[in-house]
Amino acid sequence: MAGPPLASRPGPPIIMPNEGRCPPRPAARVAAGAVRGIAPRLPATRTGTDWCPGSIARVKISADLEQDQESETDGGSRLVIAVDGPSGAGKSSASRGVAIALGLRYLDTGSMYRALTWWLLDRGADTTDPQAVARLAAGPVIEVSTDPRAPWTRVDGTDVSGAIRTREVTAAVSAVAAVPQVRAHLIAQQREIIARAHGIVAEGRDIGTVVAPDAQVKVFLTADGAARASRRTAEASWSTRADQDQRDRLDAAQSGKADDAVEIDSTGLGLDEVISLIVALVPQSLQKSR
Length: 290
Prior knowledge:
- This protein is α/β, with parallel strands linked by helices.
- The chain has one domain (28-286): Rossmann fold, CATH 3.40.50.
- Helix content is 36%, strand content 14%.
- It contains ten helices and ten strands.
- The strands form two sheets. It has a six-stranded parallel beta sheet with strand order 1-10-9-3-8-4, sandwiched between helices. The protein has a four-stranded antiparallel beta sheet with strand order 2-5-6-7.
């Protein structure tokens, strides 16, 4: 019997990563019907108060991220988990859950593209004109929270966390994200955020292939069309299956599964199951309690 909707189940215990390196993983697929018996071994529950999530802006460096860098042991490796996949597959919920479980930061790269799109629309810019979008790409100051328990997005100091999820933004974001100058500008920021974190779960469309190709763990999270559409029905930015299919077509050029990514089909799985599957992919050499 299929589990309850993806967002309805509690997450796993809170654990922390260890430093280390791991060889690239071969491509693999975890199918929904093949994982029911998996019971991943999780390290000890984390204790202590040394982790303090923060945020980073385009024009400043977060003090918390500076502390992350200083806390690294000599020769240590920052754990990076890349989660890619189409809309409605459950990337955001699963990525936040994994970040909380492993005591890592969380980066929603899609919110950055949405923030720029919102800013362009708010100023009456033609988001279908690549040249106009390219000229304005570096205009706003975009800030994103890296706290998986309290994600937010700000543009020029204004919280736009809700505004960037509207149907209007959703309809325009694919065209904006396809502009090379936009991608170069935002990918540079995303890489800086990842580089300054002691460990992070980054989710989007091309994390494992473009933004963080050296990530120790790469996941491609998917689900069948009906399940994805069902998960989107409660969101203001979606109304029909046709909307989802159109978004898939528009985003195809910017989407891709890394050759060494593990594909997880979340159809019929609960959120806790998906989180546990991703956590189980993290090598023990990169996990430790603190």
